[in-house]
Specification:
Length: 281
């Protein structure tokens, strides 16, 4: 199995973590996960643009363009013969004796990327259960940072209660899932938190909003409350790995009929058509 280390193709067994890597000690870095369908990277340009934006926001200099990283990742996917799966990549601020301020500018970022196979049958995702939980994260959730403690603690709470996702809220305002964006549908209209510092502007979220435009589903990028969430007709979770997943139960209470709603189903079908269009044979 091959990996990328600083843009070079290497055997996975050769790659070791340096214990003074700032990613390891501080979570000082950024990452992305890109989906592979039929051996092709889905929406990779959007993901890699966000990666570079996240890095810029914390002053990590990525020494490649979107096109250069994309070419490297394509080679990696081909080398590992991944038909369906994901590519994970991260850039840390590099290796330097442990000290909070940034190291000098001659310390290069450390960049790794590797692939994972994910079984895929093309079926629409069935309804999933969620809990609600106070959002205790920092105020720069727009950065796809390696620091995921808040997200992990929320997801663990969901896992402990047999749920798939934890829907976070700041006071009464719903922000996003622990590893996804959350939208509601009320009277046929979709609502989702605006892309502010309080959420990650999900690529799947952006693809979904484009689909809404194409389908003529009205939408508003407007925050909604916990009360609106639990009485919504439909609740939708979006992420690279969960694609478009209907949330059919929250804190033990059914959403709508307890079955995936019609707008959700329409969006799911259009999403599959879109990935076929971009990654089909
Ligand atoms: N919010 C958070 C906190 C996430 O971790 C993710 C998954 N990366 C998302 C939203 C969804 O983003 P995307 O659709 O780009 O995977």
């Amino acid at each position: 199995e091959k990996m990328l280390l600083d843009g070079e193709m290497r055997n996975r067994s050769e790659i070791k973590v340096e214990f003074e890597d700032r990613g390891y000690q501080f979570g000082d870095g950024v990452y992305e996960v890109i989906r592979v369908y039929n051996g092709k990277l889905f929406t990779s340009e959007m993901h890699l643009t966000r990666l570079i934006e996240s890095a810029n926001k914390i002053s990590i200099k990525i020494p490649y363009t979107v096109e250069e990283i994309e070419a490297q990742l394509k080679e990696l996917v081909a080398e590992n013969e991944i038909a369906f799966g994901t590519v994970y990549m991260q850039f840390t601020r590099g290796v330097s004796p442990r000290n909070h301020p940034f190291p000098s500018t001659d310390v290069a970022p450390v960049y790794v990327a590797y692939t994972k196979e994910v079984p895929y049958n093309g079926a629409l995702k069935p309804g999933a259960k969620a809990i609600t939980i106070e959002d205790i994260r920092w105020l720069r959730c727009d950065i796809k940072s390696l620091n995921l403690l808040g997200n992990i603690l929320a997801k663990q709470k969901a896992a402990e209660t047999g749920c798939f996702e934890a829907i976070q809220h700041r006071g009464s305002t719903v922000t996003e899932g622990s590893s996804s964006n959350i939208s509601i549908v009320v009277n046929g209209e979709l609502k989702t938190h605006p892309a502010t510092n309080l959420i990650l502007n999900g690529i799947t979220r952006q693809v979904m909003l484009k689909i809404c435009e194409d389908l003529g589903v009205a939408y508003k990028e407007e925050a909604f409350t916990l009360e609106e969430l639990v009485v919504a007709d439909e609740v939708i979770m979006t992420s690279t790995t969960a694609e478009i997943t209907p949330i059919t139960e929250i804190d033990g209470q059914s959403i709508g009929s307890g079955e995936p709603g019609t707008v959700t189903r329409q969006i799911q079908q259009a999403f599959h058509a879109e990935l076929e269009r971009q990654c089909g044979h």
